[in-house]
Amino acid sequence: MDILLYIALGAGAGLLAGLLGVGGGTVIVPVLTFVYTAHHFPPEYTLHLALGTSMASILFTSVASLRSHHKRGAVDWSVVRRLSPGIVAGTLAGVWLAARMSTNVLKLIFICFAYFVAIQMLMNIKPKPSRQLPETGGMLASGGAIGVVSSFVGIGGGTLSVPFMTWCNVPLHTVIGTSAALGFPIAAAGVAGYVLNGWRLAALPEHSLGFVYLPALAAIAIASVLTAPLGARMAHALPVAKLKKLFACLLLIVGTRMLISLF
């Protein structure tokens, strides 16, 4: 049953990655947290394991998604190059901090993040027509902020980079494709950090590589790689604005469920 759940989770994450340019961690993290808790994994490391496993799965999902978007000319590689240095530095710093926080503190950060993004999507705030991407310093700072928050909540950065680029009037399909490409440097830095920070902890469950639980990773990665190209095709054919509202509702449900779990 666990493997089937991981496969279903990976399939959903792959669709989201291709469709909205997100890594799927917003769904993967809370579900894995519930599963790991049910299996009585060490409670002080439950969310750390969910975050690390989510980051590792995004390595595979982002590659499958960005390849599909690149074929359609929807990846702005200049934006990827300008944001990536700040993203990598921010992600490594964020992982170091996250490894030293309690599970409940990380849960609160994730809940606040989920509500913030959901409300932003539902309100559909429009940017000024004149707003453009910032210069080098602004891009480094923006990438750093995306990296830090992504490492805290185990996502590929899409739920931050998509609103950021949209706010700077980048065309929507280019936003989604570029966000999918940005998921890889975030995930690579995040995985390195979560593996190293959990490397010598004896309390972690069997088949763990640091804070990455390998059985869940394998099933999620395989399923997400298969479904990400389908999501990318849908992104170029469906009304993404409506799908974003559905995603916002999903975020509210997930955040509320995790909030209830705190009590």
UniProtKB/TrEMBL annotation:
Q: Where in the cell is it found?
A: Cell membrane; Membrane
Q: Which UniProt keywords apply?
A: Cell membrane, Membrane, Transmembrane, Transmembrane helix
Report if keyword Transmembrane is assigned: yes
Q: Which InterPro entries match?
A: TM_pro_TauE-like (IPR002781)
Where does the secretion signal sit in this chain?
none
What domain of life does the UniProt record list for this protein's source?
Bacteria
UniProt similarity note: Belongs to the 4-toluene sulfonate uptake permease (TSUP) (TC 2.A.102) family.
Give the coiled coil ranges. none
Q: State the protein's name.
A: Probable membrane transporter protein
Give the record's GO CC terms.
Answer: plasma membrane
Origin species: Pseudoduganella aquatica
Q: How does it sit in the membrane?
A: Multi-pass membrane protein
The keyword Transmembrane is annotated on this UniProt entry: yes
* Pfam families per UniProt: TauE
Major localization listed first in the record, in broad terms:
membrane
Q: Which residues cross the membrane?
A: 7-33, 45-67, 79-99, 105-125, 137-155, 175-196, 208-231
